[in-house]
Amino acid sequence: MGRLYYDGLCPFCSKLVRWGQQFLASERIQWVPLDYSDRSQLPVPVESVIYEDEGGYWVKTEAIRRLLLDSGHPFLAKLLGIIPLRWRDWMYDRIAERRYCWGKKCSQGSDAPCQ
């Protein structure tokens, strides 16, 4: 069984996880929401999605690719794997920078628009 650690305070992440729980084989995956402000909870010291299985830990887009493989979606995992890891993780980082932003205002309590 795999375990996916994600930012439980992030509305974007939580929405994707709800979609994943419906679409992916949820009995094979344990979904673990975390508060990344307490890094002692994390199995590895990062601020991104983490996927854990018997083989180890993966982060960012490789975590998503491994999740797809373990949940019975090898075609989607292979499609994601076509894109070089460096490019995938660059895109992941750009999305992660704005993950709390919805619409014109940032949901972290700031009245300033997201950049």
Structure report:
The protein is of the alpha+beta class and 115 residues long. The protein has one domain. Helices cover 40% and strands 21% of the residues. The protein has 4 helices and 6 strands. The protein has a 4-stranded mixed β-sheet with strand order 2-1-3-4, with helices on one face. A two-stranded antiparallel sheet has the order 5-6. The model is unreliable at 109-113 (pLDDT under 50).
* Overall shape: globular
Through-space gap between termini: 38 Å
Question: What is the percentage of strand-forming residues?
Answer: 15-25%
| Overall radius of gyration | 14 Å
Widest sheet: strand order? Answer: 2-1-3-4
Number of helices: 4
Output the structural class.
alpha+beta
Number of domains: 1
Report the helical percentage: 40-55%
Number of strands: 6
Unreliable runs, pLDDT <50, ≥5 residues?
Answer: 109-113
Q: What's the average pLDDT? A: 81
Layout: helices, strands, pairs:
Layout: E1 2-7, H1 11-23, E2 29-34, E3 50-53, E4 56-59, H2 60-70, H3 74-82, H4 85-97, E5 101-102, E6 105-106
Parallel strand pairs: 1-2
Antiparallel strand pairs: 1-3, 3-4, 5-6
